[in-house]
Amino acid sequence: MPTVNSTGDCQPEADCASTSSKGIASFSHVKMQEPVLGDTSVMPPPVRTSVVNPAANIRHMRRIIAEDPEWSLAIVPHLTELCLQYIIINFEKKPILNHLLPEHKKRVLDRISTGLPLSVTANLISDEGYWKRCCTERWTVCDVSCYGGSWKQMFFERHLENILKYFVPNVTDPDRILDVIPLCKDYVRKLEIDQFLPPVKLDEKKEEEDLSDSGSDVEIDELSMHHYDIGGLIVALPHLEELNLSYGVKDCGMNFEWKLFNFTSKDCSNLAKGLKKCQSLKVFKLTRSKVDDDKARLLIRNLLDHPCLVELDFSHNLIGDRGARAIGKLMNHSRLEILTLCNNQIRPPGAQAIAHALAKNATLISLNLRLNCIEDEGGQAIGHALLSNSSLRSINLAGNELSEPTATLFSLVLAQNTALTSINLSCNHIGLDGGKQLLEGMSDNKTMSEFDLRLAEVGQESEYLINQTLRANQEIARLKTLQQSNSPQEKLP
Fold first, then answer.
1. What is the pLDDT of residues 62-71, one digit of tens each?
2. Phi-psi region of 176 (alpha: psi -120 to 50; beta: other; left: phi over 0)
3. CB 383 within 8 A of CB 409
4. Helix, strand or coil for residue 366?
5. Domain contains 313
6. What is the tally of structural domains in the chain?
7. 3: helix, strand or coil
8. What are the tens digits of pLDDT across the range 348-397?
9. Would residue 86 count as lying in a domain?
10. Is residue 132 part of a domain?
11. Alpha-carbon gap, residue 382 to 396, rounded angstroms
12. Is residue 273, in this structure, part of any structural domain at all?
C-alpha cells in the first residue's frame, strides 16, 4: 500500500520500509558509539528513586490514636517529656525519683528498666507496681498472697533464696550474699530453701596433700560436705519469721549419691547458733535432712525458752526416742502451738516422753506423729495425757501400729475431752471391737468434726455411724459460727 512522504508525494510501501530500516540502523549506530570525555551532548541514563508510600504506616495516616494514652498531636515533644526521657535513660546514674511531682514519678516508675542494680532500687523504690513488673518478668508463677500481698517482699525473698539454692562452697563468691544482705534485710520475712549444694570435689592429688592418711573415709566425706553457713545469714535478717530448710540436692540425675543429702555436724552447729540469736523466728521447719537424735538435741537445746517460736516441723528425718525426749522438754519450755514429727523413728519410750509433756502443756493445739512406731504402749500414754489436756485441737497418729487397747482408751477421750476437734487413726489395726468402742465414745461427743478411720479395719457399720455423728457435729459448728458472725450486727442500733 502506498504511503505519503513528508513532501506530500505518494511513495510505495517498500521504499517506506527501506527508509525506516535505514533510520533504525543509523540510530543503533549512534547508541553503540563510546561517549567522549567532556562531551555534554551525551545524556546519562535516568536514576530511579524509591518513593516512600505514606499509606504503608497506618499510624502516619491517622489523625488520632486513641489506644495510645501517651500520643500527642504535637510534632515536637514538650520539654517535660524530654526531661522525663532523660531521667529514665540515666536513672542508674541520677536516681532523682523523690524530687519529681507525683504524676511524673508514676510515669518514670512505669517506664524504668527492671534490670537496674538493686543497690539503686532496693531502698529507693517502694512502688508495688515496679516490683510487680520485676517479679512477673523474672518468674512465671507469682502468687503474691503467699508473701503478705507485697510484691517487693516476694522479689527479695525469692532473689535471696535463688542465690542460696545455687551457692557452691569454695566456688561461688561469698560476696554475692554479703552484698545483697544489706539491701534485702528489711524486706525478708520468710525463707524456703529446698536444696543446699555441697562443695565441689577436690583433685585427688590435692586431697592426698591436704588430708592425712590417718583420717577415715567417713571423716574425709564429712569434712568435704559442709554446706553454706545458714546460721550466719539468719542472724543478719532482723525480721525473719519463718525458716523452711531441706538439706539435699534436686535434679541430680545420674550424679545421685547418698552423701549429697547429708546434714553434717558442722551444718547443725552453725544452724543452732543462728537459731538461738534469731529472736523473731516463729516457724522453723527442717525436713528431709537425715536429722538424727544428736543433731535434734543440739538444735532443741538452742530453742529452749524461745520467745516467739510457735511451729516446729522435723518431718521425714531420723529422730528416735532420745530426740523425742528433748522435744518433750521443749514443749513445756516454749510457746509451741504446732508440732510435726511425722515419718521419724519414734517408738514407745519417745511417745511416752511426749505424752508426759502433753499432759502438762497448755499451748499446743496440733500434734502430728504420723508414720512412726509408737505402738499401743505409746498410744495409750498419749490417750491418758489427752484426758487431762484441754488445749490440743488436732492429733494425728496414723500408721503407728495401734490396735484395740489404744481404741479403748480413745473412746474415753472422745467422751470426756471437749477440746479435740480432729483425730486421725487411719492405717492402724483398730479392729471391729475397737471400732465399736470408738462408736460408743462418739455417741455423746458434740465437738469432734474430723475422725479419719480409713484402713483401720473398724467395719463399715461403725465407720458409717461415726460419720453420721461427725456430720451432725459439723452442722452444729457451722450454725455456731454463723451465729457468732451475725451477733455483732444484731447489737448495732
1. 778 888 887 7
2. alpha
3. yes
4. strand
5. no
6. 1
7. strand
8. 999 999 999 999 999 999 999 999 999 999 999 999 999 999 999 999 99
9. yes
10. yes
11. 11
12. no
